[in-house]
Amino acid sequence: MFNNYPRPSEAEYEKNKSKLNALNNPVRLNIVEGLKNKEKMNFGEDYIENYSMNTHEIHRYLIENNINIGRQMLSQHLRKLLEAGLIDRIRVHHNGNGAVPMIYSYFLKEDAFDDLLLDLNFFRDEINTFVEIYKNSESRKCKNNCVVTVLNGIDKGKILTINEDETAFIGRQSADRPIENPSLLVLSRSYNSVSKISEPHLKVFNKNGTWFMLDESSSNGTYYSNKELKKGEAKEIPNNSVVQLSKGEGSVKLYFTYNQ
Total structural domains in the chain? Predict the structure, then answer.
């Protein structure tokens, strides 16, 4: 897909290194994520004010994501992202007499990640891999089935196709249950924080034309949109969504897609 891509210059390499250094922090990653979410919610808006976030909004977003930092520390993180060329800002309020300080609104630059993704070989390779994964997932979709694809780890690209009259089970490899069953997605033992298939981490089924997932008793939880599913409570699976079984090392991310 990206054959003979030009090698980055020394200056471009330093620029990319600066971006990577800026992203090497959970607070700054959350800020970038918040700005990206705001942009997606207001996609197509012509005015920056409609898809930017001021410091108060960013601070509130971080608190909602369990990150509590002071305003001064927030300013330092924003300055780091500005210097790296990942974000930009506009002045949205200023009292001429100086009684009220300037308020800036921040937004993600359009080309924030272009060079980072394209100049580095391993990122380009990953883009190629995910393009192929997406194509394979789409090719498996039929009228009423659901396609589940592994997105990370040793089983990346592994696919389970679930018919609407089937109940599928997802879990880590175990000797207690046969792995040739077509309604099982059996993951490698390297996903060691995912529950064993003998006591499945996740159940997937269709009810009245709607796809659901159910975590009955996993040890480390199931997460969608950064929120843990309630044990024993079925939740509808949004189309084209990513669900994570467990968190951190040994977890797995799954992509769900189906025809609507």
Answer: 2
Tell me: do 251 and 148 sit in the same domain.
Answer: yes
Q: Which two tokens stand for residue 122?
A: 């391993």
Specify whether 32 is located in the same domain as 96: yes
187 and 177 Cβ atoms separated by less than 8 Å = no
* Helix or strand holding residue 106 (H, E): strand 103-108
**Residues 205-218: pLDDT tens digits?**
999 999 999 999 99
The answer on 153 and 110 residing in a single domain is: no
CB 215 within 8 A of CB 231: yes
* H or E element in which residue 202 lies: strand 202-207
Number of C-beta neighbours around residue 260 at 10 A: 6
Report the DSSP pairing between strands 167-172 and 184-187.
Answer: parallel
Q: Kindly state whether residue 126 falls inside one of the protein's structural domains.
A: no
pTM: 0.69
pLDDT, tens only, 76-124: 999 999 999 999 998 876 555 555 567 889 998 887 887 777 766 667 7
Q: Find, among 206, 182, 187, the residue nearest to 253 by Cα.
A: 187
Pick from 143, 201, 148, 192: which is nearest to 171 by CA? Answer: 201
Task: Please indicate, yes or no, whether residues 165 and 97 belong to a single structural domain of this protein.
Answer: no
Which residue segment(s) compose the domain that 188 sits in? 139-258
Query: Residue 149: inside a domain, yes or no?
Result: yes
Contact present, 256 and 211 (Cβ < 8 Å): yes
